[in-house]
Amino acid sequence: MSEPMKEQITREFVDLTIRVPAPLAVRMQRFMEAALELIEDQEHDRLYAFEELFPDFHAGNALRGARTREGLTQAQLAERVGVKIHHISEMENRKRPIGKEMAKRLSKALNIGYRVFL
C-alpha cells in the first residue's frame, strides 16, 4: 500500500517588499539570508523562535521602524506619547526598557500592536 503524501501547501507565491532605513539595509539583508539558510538546512515542519532567526533584534528596532514608517521624528513621537525626546532615543538605542503601559501608548501613536515592543 502506498504511503500518504504530504499535501503541498505552497500553491502560489507573493512578492514581499521590506523598507528599512539605509544604514540598516546590510544588516537586514544578513538577517534574511540567515533565516533562509536556517529554513533550507532544517526540516520544513520545525518552528523557529523569533530570537533564533533574529538574535540581535530588540524592541528599539521595532520602535524606530514604526516611527520611520509613520514619518515621525523622535520629537513628534515624544509629544504624542507625552515623554521627553531623549526617552524615545534611549528606547530606540536599548538604553531604556519599554514597559507595557509605554508600549500601549506607543502602539496608539504608531498604529501598531503593542506586543511588538515587549
Which tags fit this structure?
2 domains, mainly alpha, 118 residues, 434 Repressor (Amino-terminal Domain)
Characterise this structure.
It is a single chain. Helix content is 50%, strand content 0%. With 118 residues, the chain is an all-alpha fold. It folds into two domains: 8-57, no CATH class; 58-118, 434 Repressor (Amino-terminal Domain) (Orthogonal Bundle). It starts with 24 loop residues before the first helix and ends in an 8-residue tail after the last helix. The mean pLDDT is 85.
Helices and strands, with pairings:
Layout lengths: L24 H17 L8 H4 L5 H11 L4 H8 L3 H8 L7 H11 L8
Helix pairs in contact: 4-5
Could you give a quick summary of the protein structure above?
The chain has helices spanning about 25-40, 50-55, 60-70, 75-80, 85-90, 100-110. It is mainly α and about 120 residues long. The termini are far apart.
Helix-and-strand structural type: mainly alpha
Number of strands: 0
The percentage of residues in β strands lies in: under 5%
Helix content: 40-55%
- What is the H level of CATH, i.e. the homologous superfamily of the largest domain? lambda repressor-like DNA-binding domains
Low-confidence runs of at least 5 consecutive residues:
none
Distance between the termini: 51 Å
Major sheet? none
H-E string: HHHHHH
- CATH third-level topology of the largest domain: 434 Repressor (Amino-terminal Domain)
CATH architecture of the largest domain: Orthogonal Bundle
Overall geometric form: elongated
The mean pLDDT is 85
Number of domains: 2
- Reading off the top of the CATH hierarchy, the class of the largest domain is best stated as Mainly Alpha
What is the radius of gyration computed over CA atoms, rounded to a whole number of angstroms? 19 Å
**Count of alpha/pi helices:** 6
